[in-house]
Amino acid sequence: MKTRKAFAVLSVLMMLAFVLSACATQPVAEPETVEVIKTVEVEKVVEKEVVTTEVVEVEKASFTTPHPILSDVRVRQAIAYCTNNEELINSVYPWYPEEERANLIMHTSIPRISWAAYYGDEVQKYDFDPEKGAALLDEAGWTLPEGDTQRYNEAGDPLTLKFTTTSAEFRKTWGAVFTQQMADCGIQILPLYTPGSWWFGSNSGLRHRDFDLGAYAWVGETDPKGQTLYACNQIPLPTNGWAGQNYMGWCNQTASDAINAANNSLVRAERQEQYKIFQIEFAKDMVSLPIFQRAEGNAATKDLINFKPSATEYYTWNAYEWERADGGDTLVLALSQEPSSMWSIIESSAVQRTVAWLVFDYGSLGAASQVDYDFQERLFKLSTVEEGLTVINEVEVKEGDPVVDFSGTPTDADGNLLTLVPGLKVKQSDGVDVEFTGGTVKMNQLVVTYETAEGLTWSDGTPVSKADFELAYKIDCDPAIGAVDYSICQSIQSVDFTGDTGYVVTYKPGYMAALSFLAPINIYPAHQVLSDGRVLADVPSTEWSSLPEVAETPLGVGGYVITNWEKGVKMELEENPYYYKGPLKIKKIVIVFVPDTQQAVAQLLTGDVDVIGSETLGAGPEVQTVLDNQDKLQVLIEASATWEHIDMNLFVP
Q1: Is 453 left (phi over 0), alpha (psi -120 to 50) or beta?
Q2: Rg (CA), the chain
Q3: What is the pLDDT of residue 49?
Q4: Within 10 A of 427 (CB to CB), how many other CB atoms are there?
């Protein structure tokens, strides 16, 4: 039995460990990320795109012993009731309008404006109610002795939890407020503000579940996914090499089945129903406490009409609609960083995507925009089942045929393409996962028609043609270019380039990705003549990244053409006269590179700059400056797709 004196010694030792870790000389490292929606230049963790449905029985070993405190759902719910989210928001965003702070609060793992969100009565809400939290703690056996501020159980053990997060000032600020809120409920928090290199390290911190309460951010997506975060077989353990991102160790079979089912259907209505089931279970079990969505600020001259930034899309997505109230035809944007290349396969930063919308008429996805957590047609139509552009065929597959496995993965652990062999687990056409033993098996196969928007024309006046699709397939699926992910290319069985307005893709049996309605192949100007006389279609992929015609002055089908790029200073773009959406009101856009946010805001106030987006303005004190000048500016504050949360570890080593 631990005594209060023994606990005091333990507290001193833990604080000493924290001081020593703070003295480490390792740099604060960003976690491993993949691009989704908008690139956010902050510490964050991004869900890995790994789809699995198998349920793994966890043997009695490390991390199978229930946490002595957090394994009790009443304690977890009490922590939620004792958390005043609005107070936490105010601590880091004092400038955020008080009447709108509730819009930053999430009750599930999905932001409330998402198409997949369900915030109905069945979802348990944890509005700030410390009395309800205290009652739950009493019920769980953690009582508050008269005159004391610390809760104990019958054995005399104190209610104490480690709270681990990064050493970023942002987290220290709201973490200190959270610590006091818990103290007010009799819960002692030992805050450990660690280097990001340790917290997000591949062999430490979060990935090895070295925490009681762990705070960090997820980057939300237009498509919620969620399997790697919440499915039962995604719990990192020593026995599975710490694979998966279910750091809480949460296995609710109803929730696990629902999150997997939501990602194995192409019909939105079916997916919404499964996400509803998942969110009800997620809120009830309270294994991960949503704190708030981060806020983002965007500012522009009052003179700019149709300025419509979105949390899930780069603010230039609708530049074709922009115009100036004074009739002017030139606009100046400020970016805090400069793109290193305009080739989207190689460069995936927020600033590159901001410019890409102007030049290519796409951001992250190519085929579509994704404003306000939903998809909209742009260069390509959305090839959904509902629109009749996706057909699901039942096919009979035999040994040796190309397939993807039950999880939708096209390769084995060594990167080799899968074929149907005995022992391989695949998904039958009836949705049941089976291990192939020989003979044949019936599987689903997608055949999807992708059609372009009408009138797509390159900025040199040449219409988009079949050769442009063929070149894009050849280049983007070439391993030599060093792209981050080839899983879609590896899942394609064949492509039929039917003409100048689209193509048909037959995917390998078993591939049922929820986002298969988005065109997997983009377009490149196959006809483009380079300065050395060669035609782009004839240039090896290994040379593309160094071509000025690809990296600096690319042809596009967007509203603007890059006419001058003075590195480190500015980029000038002029209207594409062949733009498929017609003439533009803004004929010229100048992008100036201003690394210092304060300087960018100063130039906005003097009128030297017309627009500053969230990637430059961010959420710091400069937001208050622009809010104080709303007589000159239009300031749009939005709930970011990135959201802070606290995971609760249900098991201990």
Answers
A1: beta
A2: 26
A3: 44
A4: 24
Tabulate helix, strand, coil % of the chain (nearest 5). 30, 25, 50
Element (H, E) at 652: strand 651-652
Q: Quote the mean pLDDT of the chain.
A: 89
Q: What token pair was written down for 147?
A: 């005159």
Answer yes or no: are the C-beta atoms of 86 and 101 closer than 8 Å: yes
C-alpha to C-alpha distance for 602 and 565, rounded to whole angstroms: 23
Amino acid at 177: V
* Pair of tokens at residue 344: 């989207």
User: CA 448, CA 507: separation in Å to the nearest integer?
Assistant: 8
Domains and CATH numbers, the chain: 4-294+643-652 (3.10.105.10), 303-379+557-631 (3.40.190.10), 390-507 (3.90.76)
- The answer for residues whose C-beta is within 8 angstroms of residue 159's C-beta and 6 or more apart is 69, 137, 142, 150, 151, 152, 153, 186, 187, 188
Global pTM value: 0.83
Q: What is the pLDDT of residues 350-384, one digit of tens each?
A: 899 999 999 999 876 657 899 999 999 999 999 99
- Phi (first) and psi of residue 476, to 5 degrees: -65, -25
User: What secondary structure does DSSP assign to 260-315, as a single string?
Assistant: HHHTS-S-HHHHHHHHHHHHHHHHHHT-EEEEEEEEEEEEEETTEES---BTTB-G
8 Å CB contact between 315 and 644: no
